[in-house]
Amino acid sequence: MEPDVSVETSAMIRIAIIPIGKIPHQTLRDYYSMFLHHHTIPLSSISSFYTEEQKSPFTNQPWETGSLRFKFVLGGEPPSPWEDFQSNRKILAVIGVFHCPLSPDLDSVIEEFDGVCKGYASARVTRCFGFFPCDSQLEDGGKKGENLRLFPPADRQTQEMHLQTMMQEIAASLLMEFEKYVFQAESAGTILKTPLDSQASLSSEEVDNFEFCKKLQVIKAKKRRLGRAQKTIGDYCLLAGSPVDANAHYSTALELARLTADYFWYAGALEGSVCALLIDQLSLKDPSLEDEVRYRYSSVILHYKKSFIPENAQRVSPLSFELEANLKLARYLCRKELAKEVVDLLTSAADGAKSLIDATDRLILYVEIARLFGTLGYQRKAAFFSRQVAQLYLQQDNKLAAISALQVLSMTTKAYRVQSRASISSNSHINEVGSSHADSGKMHHQSVVSLFESQWSTLQMVVLREILLSAVRAGDPLAAWSAAARLLRSYYPLITPAGQNGLARALANSSEMLPSGIRCSDPALPFVRLYSFPLHPSQMDIIKCNPAREDWWAGSAPSGPFIYTPFSKGEPNDSSKQDLIWIVGEPVQILVELANPCGFNLRVDSIYLSVHSGNFDPFPISLDLPPNSSKVITLSGIPTSVGPVTIPGCTVHCFGVVTEHLFRDVDNLLHGAAQGLVLSDPFRCCGSPKLKNVSVPNISVVPPLPLLVSHVVGGDGAIVLYEGEIREIHISLANAGTVPVDQAHISLSGKNQDSVLLISYETLKSNLPLKPGAEVILPVTLKAWKLGLVDLDNASGSMGRQLKDSSSPSLLIHYAGPLTDCEDPPKGSAVAPGRRLVVPLNMCVLQGLSFVKARLLSMEIPAHVGENLPKPVYLENSSKEAIDSETKMDGLVKIDPFRGSWGLRFLELELSNPTDLVFEISVSVQLDSTEDKLSAGQDATEYGYPKTRIDRDFSARVLIPLEHFKLPILDGSFFMKDFKPDGAVGSRNSSFSEKSAKAELKASINNLISRIKVRWQSGRTSSGELNIKDAIQAALKTSAMDVLLPDPLTFGFRLVRNNLSQESGDSRPKGSVLAHDMTPMEIVVRNNTKEMIRMSLNITCRDVAGENCVEGTKATVLWSGVLNGIAIDAPPLQESKHSFSLYFLVPGEYSLVAAALIEDATDLLRARAKTNSPDEPIFCRGPPFHVRVIGTA
User: Is the keyword Membrane assigned to this protein (predicted)?
Assistant: First the structure.
C-alpha cells in the first residue's frame, strides 16, 4: 500500500529528488520546497521544449487545458513489484540536487548521479541540478553533458523562475518519452506480470500449450496479454494528460479482461477509467458524476475481491488494492453530508487490516483511515487509529520508530483532551483550514475543563502512559517530563501512592537529562490558585486628584486599594474588573494557595509571580509541601517602572524544570469540579475550605508618591476613656516616601465624630511641604461618648471586645505631592494620584459612673410668717436690688425657711460606681445674665453645688433643685393648642400655633437641661462630664409644665408691726408672735398672668392638728377684719394686699392658708388647672405659712 492515495493518483508522474554530494539537511529541505511549487505543469507551457518526431499517439491531447501532474519523492524509493500493474508507481524521472559550494568537483557529482540513476531502471528522464555554482563551475558545466543544469547565484524568486523553466523542459521530455513507449507497446508484444501471476510466464504458456492446452486457451492468453497492454497504454495516456485517449484504451482493456476473466487487471483498468473520467470533466459540475464514480468504484472493489486466489494468500494478496480502492472512494466522498457512507467504507477498510500480510501496509492503512476520520471531524475515531499506528511503531524496538510513535501520539492528544499547553497556545493563535482547527480558540475554556472528563479518564491515562513510554524510548526527556507532569497533575486521584511516587521519579530522572533551568509549558505540581490581593494598609490608600478644584480630594474615597469601583457615582463601568494601582519602588504582596494532593513530600525549589510586562521584580521563595496538604503563602515584588502589569500566574521551579502555573487553569479546574466534570478538587481534598473565585484586577504602576506613616505618641494601643472623659492625644505624622507632601486635608469619618473636639489642622498646614523623612506632631482633643445598652453589655466583657468595636471615629488625611498646574497642564500628562491616610482613633470607652435612675421629686416645706415677704428666686427686669454672689448661692443651694415652698421640685439622679476608681461629683447650674442681674458684665455665670464622693461599688444620689427655673410669667402661648378658632383658615392658624407652642416648650426644656452640668473627677488627670440629657428629659416627660410654669396666683403673709412694737431688747425668735395680743397681718396676692383676675379670697388658720381654729365653738383664735369672701381684682403682674388681725388665745404652732376662687376664669387659667369642663370652678391655694405663738395660756 501507498500513503496519500486518491482517485487522481493514477495521473501523477512520480519523480525522485535525490541529494548528491554533501548537502545540509535544511538546505535540501529548502530546495525541495521549491520543487513543490511546480507539481502541475500546463501543457500549453511546454510547447517550446516539445518536438514531435512523428505523429503523436495521443490524438486527443488537450494542449490548451491539459497538464502534467508531478509527485515528488524526496530521497527516492525502491522499485515496486506492482509497477507493471500501475504505471504511476514507477519512478519515471530522477532529479539530482547538489549544493555547489560543498561539491566543487562536477565530475564526481556526475559520476555519483549516474550511479544513482542505475537503480531506477524505469526512469525516462534524468537531470542533475546544481545550485549556487561558482564561475569556474559555470564554465565547466556546459562541457559535462546535457543532464547537468546549474542555477547561477540569485535570489529565491529568480531561482524559482529558473526552476520553473527546467520543470517545463522535464515535462516536455517526459511527454516525448511516453509517446515512444506507447509506440513501442503497440508495435511489439510486451509481457506484463504481477506477483499474483503463476510462476509460468505468458510466453512459456504459449510454447507449452500445444502439449496440454487447446487452441482456445492460446487465444485467451493472447487476449489477456493484449488487454494488459491496452491497460498500460491507457496508464501512459493518463500520465501524459490525455484522458480521452486513456479512456479509449481502458475501454478496450476492460472488454478483453472481461472476456479472459482477468479480474485483477479489470479492476485496475476500471480504476484508470474513473481517473480519466474525473480529469476529463474536472471543470464540469455534473451531479451524475459522483454517482458514476461511486458505481464504478463499487465494481472495482468487487473485482479486486474476485481476484483473490487462496493458494497465493500466504505469499501475496490483492487485498491491499481492495483496501486502497476503499480509501480512494472514501477520500473522494469525504464530506459532512456523506459522512455515513464514508464511515462505512473506512470501517470496512479497518476490518480488512487484520488480513494484511505486511505490517507496513497495516501501518499505512491506519494512517490513512485516521487522516480521513480527522477530515470528517471525527477526532476521537482518528485518534483511535493513530494510536494503532503508534502501537505498530512501538512494536519495533528502535529509536526512530519510538520517535515516530511519539509524533503520532502527540497528534492524538487534542482528541483525547490531554494535549500539551504549548499546542493549545499555538492552536489559539494559528487559524488553520479544517474542522479540526476551526474553533480551537473558542473552545479553549471548555477544552481545559474537559481535559479532566471522568468518562475518559482511563483512556486518557493510557494515552499519556504511551506518550511517556515512547518519549523515554525516543530519548526525549522533555517530552517524557511533560507527559509525566500531565499524567500526575490531571489524574492523581486515580493513581495509587506507589504510582504517584513512580511518576515523581520519572520527573526527576527526566530532569537529570535536561539542562538546568529549562522551561516546560506543562506544569506539574503543586496546584496554585490566587487566594487574594491583600488590601493596601490604611496608610497607603490611593485617591484621584483634581487640581482644577479647590477641594482636590473630593469624590476620591477609595475602596481598599482600588481607585475605581463599579459603584462609582456618575462613572460608567465597562468592565467587571477593578483597577489596582501600584507605586514604583513600594513592595506589594499577593496571597496564593498551594496544594499537594499526592502522597509524597513536594519540594518547591522556587516560586514567584509570573510577570511578562518587564516592569516588576518578583521575589522567589522556596518551601516544602507535606503529602495531602495545602498552604497559603505570600508572594511579593517591587514595581520598577510606570506602565501596566499583568500577572497571569506563578513561575514554579519544581522537579528540576521551570513551569508557569496560570491562575486561569485552576479556576477552570475548580469550575469543572463544581459542575461535576472533574475527578477531584485538589484544594478540598487537602482540607482547604471553599474559596470564592478571585479575579486578577487591572494593575497599573504610577510614579513614586509621598507616604505618610502615623502613630500615637505614647503607644498605638487603645485610648482607654471613661464615659464623658476629655483628653488630649498627640499623633505623629512622618513622610516615609521619596516625594514631599505638598497638599493635605484633614476630615473625620466613622461613628461618634462629635467625640473629636479639636484637631490642630494649622499645625500640619504650617509644616507643609513635609519633606521626605520629616515629622510633625498633631494634637487632637477627644471626648468619650456615652455607652448605649449594647455597649454596656460589651463593656461587661473583656476589653478585647472593646478594641474591635467600630464605634471609634477615624481621621482622614488626604495628601498628595506636587499637583500639576491646572491652568497649563502638559499635553498628554496624567495627574499623579494622591493618598489617603486613615488614622483610627482606637477609643476604648469604659463605663464610668452609671445612671441607676432619675426621677422628679416634689417636696412641701412650710414657710414662716415674717415681717418681710420672701423674695422669689426669679427677679423681674424692673428690679434694681443688689445681692451678692454668696446670697445668690444660698438661694440656689439652700431652702429659705421663711419662704418655704409648696410643691418644690427636685431632680434626683442616682449614680452608681461599678469601677475600681473613686469619683467626685460636682453639680453646677448656669444662669443667663438676663435672669441673673447679680452677674453684671457677664453673659452667664455658673454656680456649683457641694461635691459628692462616690467610692467603688457604691451609689449616691444628687439632688438638683428646679424651683429657680420657673418662668416669671404664666403666658398663654404654651396653651395655644386649647384655642380652636372656627373656619378653615383658623384651623391652619391653630395648627401653626400649636407647632410653635410645642417648639417653644421643647426649647425651654432643652434650655433648662443645658444649664445643668454634672461633672466628675478621678485622680489628678482624669475628668469628664456626664451626659444627663436623656435622664432629665425622661424625668420631665410628664411634669415639664409644672416645673417651668408658675402658679397663676402667689400668696404670702407678713406681720405688720410698728417700729415701737418690738423693742430692741426683745428676745423673741424671729417671726414669732405673743399670745393674748392682737397681731396685725396682711396677705399679699400676686397675679402672675397678663390678664386681670377676679377672685374670692378666703383665709384659714389651723392648729397643729389641722383643725380650723377661727370658726366653731372651740375657736382658739379671734380675728379682726374679713377672712372669708374677700373680693379682690388682681391687676396683671402686680400684687394686691388685704389687712387683718389675729388674736391667739393659746400658744403653739399655727398655719395660715390662703385660698381663692377665681371667677370668670379664662382659657389660660383652665388650661393651667387642667380642667375639662367650662363650668368647673377654679381654685388656687397657696402654701401654708407657720406662725409660732409664744406666751402662757
Answer: no
**Whole-structure pTM value:** 0.63
For 592, the domain range is: 523-542+576-702
Tell me which long-range contacts 50-57 makes (C-beta under 8 A, separation of at least 24).
50/172, 50/175, 50/176, 51/172, 51/176, 53/176, 54/183, 56/179, 57/179, 57/182, 57/183, 57/186, 57/233, 57/237, 57/245
All three cell numbers of 109, joined, read: 557529482
HEC letters along 765-815: HHCCCECCCCEEEEEEEEECCCCCHHHHHHHCCCHHHHHCCCCCCEEEEEE
On whether both 684 and 753 belong to a single domain, the answer is: no
- Distance, in Å, from the CA atom of 19 to the CA atom of 621, rounded to the nearest integer, reads 54
According to the 3-state scheme, what is the secondary structure of 964-1023? Answer: HHCCCCCCHHHHHHHCCCCCHHHHHHHHHHHHHHHHHHHHHHHHHHHCEEEEEEECCCEE
Q: Decide if pLDDT at 901 tops 50.
A: yes
Reply yes or no on whether the pLDDT at 1000 is more than 90. no
What residues contact residue 370 under an 8 Å CB cut-off, 6+ apart? 381, 382, 383, 384, 385, 386, 389
Angle between helices 359-376 and 319-332 (to 10 degrees): 10
Question: Domain containing 169 — which CATH number?
Answer: 3.40.50
Q: Read off the C-alpha cell for 210.
A: 500445444
Closest CA to 845 of 902, 900, 915: 915
Give 798: exposed, middle or buried? Use CB within 10 Å, 0-12, 13-18, 19+. Answer: exposed
Dihedral-angle region of residue 332 (phi above 0 means left; psi in -120 to 50 means alpha; beta otherwise): alpha
* Distance separating alpha carbons of residues 714 and 170, to the nearest angstrom: 100
In a domain, residue 495? The reply is: yes
Tell me how far apart the terminal alpha carbons of the chain are, to the nearest angstrom. 160
Amino acid at 980: K
Euclidean distance between CA atoms 364 and 323, whole angstroms: 11
Q: Which three cell numbers stand for residue 470?
A: 515512547
Listed residues 169, 187, 205: the one ending a domain: 187
| Shared-domain flag, residues 580 and 723 | no
Give the CA angle between residues 1146, 1149, 1155 to the nearest 5°. Answer: 105
If asked whether residues 39 and 156 sit together in one domain, one would say: yes
Range of lowest pLDDT (166-175, 397-406, 967-976): 967-976
Contact 686, 696 (CB under 8 A): no
Is 1107 part of a structural domain of the chain? yes
Whether 644 and 619 map to the same domain: the answer is yes
User: What is the total count of domains within the chain?
Assistant: 5
Q: Are 556 and 595 in contact (CB under 8 A)?
A: no
Q: Are strands 588-596 and 527-532 parallel, antiparallel or unpaired?
A: antiparallel
- 682 and 757 housed in the same domain: no
Identify the CATH number of the domain in which residue 693 sits: 2.60.40.10
Q: Give yes or no: residues 690 and 838 share one domain.
A: no
82 and 116 share one domain: yes
> Are the C-beta atoms of 413 and 483 separated by less than 8 Å?
no
Residues 847-870 as b/e (b if ≥16 CB within 10 A, e otherwise) read bbbbbeebebeeeeebbbbbeebb
Q: Summarize pLDDT for 241-293 with one digit per residue, the tens.
A: 999 999 999 999 999 989 888 899 999 999 999 999 998 887 677 778 888 98
Answer whether residue 802 shows pLDDT above 70.
no
Last residue of a domain, one of 500, 516, 532: 516
Measured CA to CA, the distance from residue 1013 to residue 543 in angstroms comes to: 44
Quick one: 662 and 733 in the same domain?
A: no
- pLDDT greater than 80 at residue 239: yes
Query: For the chain, how many residues are written?
Result: 1193
Answer whether residue 634 is part of any domain.
yes
Share of the chain above pLDDT 70, in %: 79
Do 614 and 642 touch, CB atoms closer than 8 A? no
Element (H, E) at 287: helix 287-306
Asked if residue 1043 belongs to a domain, the reply is no
